[in-house]
Amino acid sequence: MTRLQIGDKAPDFRALNEHGNPVSLTDYKGKKVILYFYPKDMTPGCTAESCNLGENYALLKEKGFEIIGVSPDPAKRHLKFIEKYKLPFTLLADEDRTVLEAYNVWGLKKFMGKEYDGVHRTTFVIDEKGIIEKIFLKVKTKDHTNQILESYS
Length: 153
Fold this sequence. Notes:
Blueprint: E1 14-17, E2 22-24, E3 32-37, H1 44-55, H2 57-62, E4 65-71, H3 75-85, E5 90-93, H4 98-102, E6 106-111, E7 114-119, E8 122-126, E9 132-136, H5 144-150
Parallel strand pairs: 3-4, 4-5
Antiparallel strand pairs: 1-2, 1-5, 3-8, 6-7, 8-9
């Protein structure tokens, strides 16, 4: 779905986290970022993906990664999601879809013969200089950490 490619400068953004505090990509300058976009908190696939990243957070940090999740859910829902599943990273509330649209991950989807607009589950790995290093369009929700790490071996 996305038109962004490996080697492109990652679009900067500013969105509110689960506590209502502004977060931007420039806050992470000098760090490698796993920026993952997912449709909705508390749903099976999104929970599996977020928990897989959360359960492997120490390993990912050890490898030099920071993690940011983005969905159109409101901050209060993100906070409940984080508390329920003990997620150790920030989630951005992109209710106006500014970040989703900047990364071209919002658009037409099809499910059971119906078409609707929604989030295309996508992960970007952004290097320390803000350049897109990896893009995952077919996310393995239950094994996303290994999917990311194996792409570096």
